[in-house]
Amino acid sequence: AEGQDFAAHKCVLSAASAYFRALFTSQMKETNVELLEAKSTTVSDVLQFIYTGKVSIDSSNAQNLAMIADYLIIPVLKTRASYFLESLINASNCLALELFASRYNCESLKQAAITYKCENFLAFTKSEDFNKLDVERVKELICMDEINVSEEDEVYQAVIAWIKYDLPSR
Question: How far apart are CA 70 and CA 64, in angstroms?
Answer without folding.
Answer: 10
